[in-house]
Specification:
Helix content: 25-40%
Number of helices: 6
Structural class: alpha+beta
Radius of gyration: 19 Å
Largest sheet: 5 strands, mixed, barrel
Number of domains: 2
Order of helices and strands: EEEEEHHHEEHHH
Shape: elongated
Number of strands: 7
Length: about 240
């Protein structure tokens, strides 16, 4: 059996208990893309270099991982947090936002396919979530950032009165689109396009507009990505924002 050891930065997406003391962790790694790792004994007696608290959604780690040519399930031997004091668990809003982000990321990635620019973007947003209170439109900007790095950013050509076609990713006349955002929400989407994440959009959304836009962007991702799964945390997010 050939086993190799490597260092990689990774973002924890989710975890599943395995046996009495171990975890299977799904993670987005910078060099290897989406991977699954066995973390042995982390729920038992104190394990050197590993803590169960490290393996929460959207935790950024630098990890020592092993791979084997006889197994698809790799292992994490050591890990250390890349952000100081990631406080998602102690903040109800942040922990649910982190869960939503992790669910989306897990659904847009392909196993073992590196997406380093996307990794850097998601890492930046995890840093932002740690250091700031998320604005009501944080996840709208996050989903648009995902589409940009996946090469499916919406077309920016917009004329007043048009609607955004969720299947084609373009603004068009409202009578030609089969599935589209409403005219007001399409106008709101247009105001987000082309801006940096840090920029403030011209006006705050009302809750109904945010709901339609967030659901619409998920519909758009579903049209672009085969097998896309809607986040289970969507209902909670909508109750928060």
């Amino acid at each position: 059996m050939s086993t190799q050891t490597a260092h990689t930065d990774l973002i924890v997406l989710n975890r599943l208990r395995y046996g009495e003391t171990s975890l299977i962790v799904r993670a987005f790694t910078k060099e290897l893309g989406l991977q699954s790792y066995l973390v042995k004994g982390v729920l038992g007696a104190k394990k050197k270099g590993l803590r169960a608290s490290y393996f929460q959604s959207m935790t950024l780690l630098n990890a020592v991982v092993t791979t084997s040519n006889t197994s698809r399930l790799f292992t994490i031997k050591e890990a250390k947090p890349l952000l100081i004091g990631q406080g998602y668990l102690s903040d109800v809003v942040k922990s649910n936002v982190a869960l939503f982000m992790a669910e989306v990321i897990a659904s847009v990635l392909s196993e073992g396919h590196p997406e380093q620019e996307l990794f850097d973007f998601v890492s930046e947003q995890a840093n932002r979530l740690e250091s700031e209170k998320p604005a009501p439109d944080f996840l709208i900007k996050f989903l648009l950032g995902i589409t940009r790095h996946l090469g499916s950013y919406p077309d920016q050509e917009y004329k007043p009165g048009q609607v955004f076609d969720l299947n084609e990713g373009i603004f068009t006349d409202q009578f030609t689109a089969i599935q589209a955002l409403s005219v007001p929400t399409s106008a709101r989407l247009a105001s987000y396009l082309g801006i940096d994440f840090d920029e403030v959009t011209p006006h705050m959304d009302d809750k109904a507009t945010r709901k339609e836009l967030l659901e619409g962007l998920l519909d758009y991702l579903s049209a672009q990505i085969a097998g896309f799964k809607y986040p289970k945390s969507l209902e909670i997010i909508q109750s928060i924002f």
